[in-house]
Write a structure and sequence with these properties.
This protein is α/β, with parallel strands linked by helices and 316 residues long. The chain is globular. The protein starts with a strand and ends with a strand. 19% of the residues lie in helices and 30% in strands. A hairpin with a 5-residue loop joins strand 3 (39-43) and strand 4 (49-53). It folds into three domains: 4-92, Translation factors (Elongation Factor Tu (Ef-tu), domain 3, Beta Barrel), CATH 2.40.30; 107-216, Nucleotide-binding domain of ferredoxin-NADP reductase (FNR) module (Rossmann fold, 3-Layer(aba) Sandwich); 226-315, Beta-grasp domain (Ubiquitin-like (UB roll), Roll). Strands 4-3-6-1-2-5 form a six-stranded antiparallel β-sheet. Strands 9-8-7-10-11 form a five-stranded parallel β-sheet, sandwiched between helices. It holds the Pfam family DmmA-like_N. This is Oxidoreductase. Keywords: 2Fe-2S, Flavoprotein, FMN, Iron, Iron-sulfur, Metal-binding, Oxidoreductase. It comes from Rhodococcus pyridinivorans. Residues 1-102 form the FAD-binding FR-type domain.
């Protein structure tokens, strides 16, 4: 994947643990616009690449803004980004979308928890400016820990529903109340901790079809030990490759000179998605939608394998 050099032009503390970082090109040429809900790969000072949702105004072309929460158990990614200074250089990918505004929907419900507000923020800002019907439900432990809450109160107070201090046990009850009466043709979007999104999905599917529920997830699924894997074959462009139990599809394909892009190597960014022409994928990613997984037509080849003995793949 091609990365471009950008410069940190501004850093703003949003909460005690969250900073927003503004990026521009050195020559002043535009970075955007981008589609609401998009994310970028960010290669930090320690050469660790992570995915971050853009939370600036999608229509603004001059700069990108993303937010980073400093994790207590950071492996170097978020901690290093919190040490950045204005003028530092980073490398980023072009924006891409795993979650986007559904054009067929007539009303949109955004549900965010914690740092999951970031993709919801860009979508809310876009829909507010363009007169699209939406509401935003924001769950956070306290007001001081709710990043961008002052901005949301200022820009779209009538669309904002704050849920501060709601315990995990009470979240499902609040969600049931808030999603009980939805207008026709509503789509629901959510981002936050995995357990929270599971609750949103479970409640939402009581009122809308699974295809109308959209999740943004940057947490990798726990992978089984390689000892539980079996070897199999993959065909690509007429060539057949053996995938051993201790290697992923993408590792073998890249080792053999195949041009397959990767980024996270954890099944959360969508860079390595390929088409499945034959065979039955065993999905182990956290990026494809339920509908995409059930179709069996695409797979994330950095982590997923097969339920059979052979796959025929093509570039996506």
């Amino acid at each position: 994947m091609t990365l471009i050099d950008v410069i940190v032009s501004d850093i703003t503390p949003e909460t005690p643990t969250v900073k927003s970082i503004t990026l521009v090109k050195a020559d002043g040429s535009p970075l955007g616009p981008y589609l609401p809900g998009a994310h970028i790969d960010v290669e930090g000072p320690t050469a660790i690449t992570r995915q971050y949702s853009l939370c600036s105004t999608p229509d603004a072309p001059d700069s990108f803004v993303f937010a980073v929460k400093k994790e207590a158990n950071s492996r170097g990614g978020s901690a290093a980004l919190h040490e950045l200074s204005v003028g530092d250089t980073l490398r980023i990918s072009t924006p891409r979308n795993l979650i986007a505004i559904a054009e067929e929907a007539q009303h949109h419900v955004l549900v965010a928890a914690g740092i999951g507000i970031t993709p919801m923020l860009s979508m809310a800002r876009y829909m507010d400016v363009h007169g699209i019907s939406f509401e935003l439900h924001y769950f956070a432990r306290t007001e001081s820990e709710a990043a961008f809450l002052p901005l949301l109160k200022d820009r779209c107070p009538d669309k904002l529903h704050q849920h501060l201090g709601v315990t995990r046990e009470a979240q499902e009850h609040v969600l049931k109340d808030e999603l009980a009466e939805l207008p026709p043709h509503t789509h629901i979007y959510t981002c936050g901790p995995a357990g929270f999104m599971d609750k949103v999905f479970a409640v939402a599917r009581e009122h809308v079809s699974p295809d109308a529920i959209h999740l943004e997830n940057f947490h990798a699924s726990e992978q089984p030990d390689a000892s539980a894997n079996a070897a199999f074959e993959v065909e690509l462009d007429g060539e057949t490759y053996r995938i051993p139990a201790d290697k992923s599809i993408v590792e073998v394909l890249q080792d053999n000179g195949c041009d397959v892009d990767t980024s996270c190597q954890e099944g959360i960014c969508g860079t390595c998605i390929m088409q499945v022409l034959e065979g039955s994928p065993e999905h182990r990613d956290n990026v494809l939608t339920r509908a995409e997984k059930e179709s069996g037509e695409v797979m994330a080849v950095c982590v997923s394998r097969t339920r059979g003995q052979r796959l025929v793949l093509d570039y996506y």
